[in-house]
Automatic annotation (TrEMBL), chain A:
GO molecular function, one term: anti-sigma factor antagonist activity
Name of the molecule in the record: Anti-sigma factor antagonist
CDD domains assigned: STAS_anti-anti-sigma_factors
Start and end residues of each STAS domain: 3-101
InterPro entries with a match to the protein in the record: Anti-sigma_ant, STAS_dom, STAS_dom_sf
SUPFAM superfamilies xref list: SpoIIaa-like
NCBIfam families: ant_ant_sig
Family: Belongs to the anti-sigma-factor antagonist family.
């Protein structure tokens, strides 16, 4: 389980990648990952390509991020979900609040 | 230096032999053409002095046979002649004679002629040796190329043909031009392409392709991001290749929706995004140095991300295209490529290659034209067949005391164990969710007695996190029992989690509240599980999960 972040070459996209499981144990590092979002960041991508597991606390953390960042970014995208994780996001209607790819 | 004197007159023979031996040549003597040919079979003769008129076989008949015997190496035949008429000279030359010496013999002229022809013979011998060596090496290289091509064909052709997603052209000898094109799909449906161009030509340029392709396929199989793939390729090539060799590369991933593109470009010509009419949407320049140059700590992982309309096409081509030359030396260039792209709807790589070839006047040597066009389309690969399940029913029961709750992560360990049961791996995310929700509910609210409404306040998550850690630290005399029953006949897994907490009364606020605040968790449980049942007290929950 780990978290890494990466700014795109033009600095407009921040990508947060979560490996293994996305649950309450990540609460601090996840918050830190988006705490430094600057003015030039237009988009945040939460890349779940390496995420096997998530639970409702991960959903809570995503909502918290959305609340914190508010309108300072134009979109928050949750990308590369495995089918079962996508279903979890759909059950929770996250597709209404996030751009799920 | 061995000289063969062929003359039927013993006096001439002796005279020549004496003169030549005096100049430190070895001498053989034959009395007619047939004897001479017999001697040639057994001796490596360097020069033949040949009389014209002889019994058994005369000089005119012998000369062509000597030349035939000599084959590719120059064996000088010098006619010994008393004849003076031009017709005879001409005949001597016609049958293969290289020179004449006249009777009576002049020692100095003889010596000069022998030396001149000896030199030519020596050069011819050397050239012949070199030619043999060249032939040997040429055959060797041909053979090695065949072997390498075979290996590469097998290594690189493991890839599927994604005809809908990708149209590409690689010249037949691309391997030895250092060009490489790889493509693969990740388990979550992302489509990855790599077009690479190693420096140099020949076998040396090809060697990097083997490790590169292996890394690419392995990492795509794991669904890694393009910058992770680039970093791994870079460090591998940096270690493997000599300093002056590297690989310009474009690595592109199209997400399974076909709407998002990530790209890492190093030392590569611009790539283009076009619509189906070929109109230019976006030009993307390389942001990085080629692979195999920078050390790991200098390597730049920044990736380009952009959203595209479904149906957008990505064009990438190695510099062979834009550097193609017209007969007058002008380059094809980027602008011509851009113009060609928009010259018709749904242009194919074959159209482009044809135009480049026409431009360059079909010059054969320009054979490193590599180009790929990728279509951004949603993943439509069919779902995998339903898995086979283990037929062995089992129960797992785990009792955790306070100490174990503090220091273990039973959910993940249990999921790992269950994932190893045949057929259950595909369900691991759901199994994790059910166990995690139920266990954390038992731990947080049952055993630790935390109130989840805290999470709704600003920064409540962090505060909750700290409270939870403190409560766990002080926890004594607690118990959580997790029971997992796998029932293959019913295609079910039944989870039962109970705790030593007080539970909750269905009529009190606590339960009501807890359901509200935990709306998401409860909703998820009831959607993922077939049934969710609490006991009367509220400290035990049974979840039935259907594998179908």
């Amino acid at each position: 389980m780990s978290l890494s972040k990466n700014a795109s070459a033009d600095g407009k996209t921040l990508t947060i990648q979560i490996k293994g499981k996305f649950d309450f144990n990540l609460v601090q590092s996840f918050r830190q990952a988006y705490a430094e979002v600057g003015n030039q960041t237009e988009k945040v991508v939460v890349d779940l390509r390496d995420t096997d597991y998530m639970d409702s606390s991960a959903l809570g953390m995503l909502l918290n991020m959305k609340k914190t960042l508010g309108d300072s970014v134009s979109s928050i995208q949750i990308s590369n979900c495995r089918p079962q994780l996508k279903k979890i996001l759909q059950i929770s209607r996250f597709d209404k609040k996030f751009d799920i790819d | 230096m061995l000289i063969l004197v062929v003359d039927d007159q013993p006096l001439n023979c002796r005279l020549l032999q004496t003169m030549l031996e005096h100049q430190h040549y070895e001498v053989l003597v034959a009395n007619n053409g047939q004897e001479a040919l017999d001697l040639l079979q057994d001796h490596d003769v360097d020069i033949v002095l040949l009389d014209v008129m002889m019994p058994v076989m005369d000089g005119f008949e012998t000369a062509p046979k000597i030349k035939e015997h000599a084959g590719d190496v120059y064996l000088p035949v010098i006619f010994i002649t008393a004849l003076e008429d031009h017709a005879s000279f001409e005949k001597c030359l016609h049958v293969g004679g290289d020179d004449f010496i006249h009777k009576p013999f002049d020692r100095i002229i003889l010596s000069a002629k022998i030396r001149a022809h000896a030199r030519t013979r020596k050069l011819s011998k050397e050239a012949y040796e070199q030619k043999k060596q060249l032939e040997y090496h040429y055959n060797q290289i041909e053979r090695e190329h065949e072997i390498v091509e075979h290996i590469f064909r097998n290594a690189l052709s493991g890839q599927e043909d994604f005809a809908d997603l990708c149209d590409y052209h690689l010249s037949p000898a691309s391997m030895f031009n250092g060009d490489m094109f790889l493509m693969a799909k990740s388990p979550i449906g992302g489509f990855y392409c790599l077009l690479g161009d190693f420096t140099g030509h020949g076998l040396a340029a090809a060697v990097g392709a083997l490790p590169a392709s292996k890394i690419f396929y392995t990492m795509v199989q794991k669904g890694m991001a393009v910058n992770d793939i680039a970093a791994e390729l870079n460090s591998s090539l940096n270690t493997l290749l000599p300093g002056h060799m590297f690989c310009a590369a474009a690595i592109v991933e199209i997400s399974s929706s076909g709407r998002n593109v990530s790209a890492w470009l190093g030392g590569f010509p611009d790539i283009y995004l076009i619509d189906s009419d070929g109109q230019m949407l976006k030009t993307i320049e390389s942001q990085h140095m080629s692979l195999g140059i920078l050390d790991e700590d200098e390597f730049e992982r920044n990736t380009l991300h952009f959203e595209v309309e479904v149906g957008t096409r990505i064009v990438m081509a190695t510099d062979g295209i834009i550097e193609s030359e017209a007969p007058d030396g002008t380059l094809f260039g980027e602008q011509r490529l851009i113009d060609v792209l928009s010259c018709k709807v749904d242009i194919s790589t074959r159209d482009i290659i044809q135009q480049v070839r026409e431009y360059s006047g079909h010059k054969e040597q320009q054979d490193d034209l590599s180009i790929a066009i990728i279509n951004c389309l949603p993943d439509c690969s069919t779902e995998a067949l339903p898995p086979e399940y283990s037929t062995l029913p089992f129960n797992i029961s785990i009792s955790l005391n306070a100490e174990q709750m503090r220091y273990t992560d039973p959910v993940l360990e249990l999921v790992d164990i269950l994932s190893k049961v045949e057929g259950l791996h595909a369900h691991r995310s759901n199994v994790f969710l059910l166990l995690s929700e139920a266990y954390n509910n038992s731990l947080d609210h049952g055993v630790l007695g935390l109130k989840s409404d805290l999470k709704n306040q600003d920064d409540g998550f962090i505060e909750y996190y700290h409270q939870r850690a403190r409560a766990l630290e002080n926890l004594k005399d607690a118990l959580i029992i997790i029971n997992v029953r796998f029932s293959p006949e019913e295609y079910r897994i039944i989870f039962n989690i109970c705790d030593s907490g007080n539970g909750f009364d269905q009529n009190t606020n606590t339960q009501h509240q807890s359901q509200q605040e935990h709306g998401r968790g409860v909703e998820l449980l009831s959607e993922i599980a077939q049934s969710v049942t609490y006991n009367q007290v509220g400290n035990e929950v049974e979840l039935v999960y259907s594998l179908r």
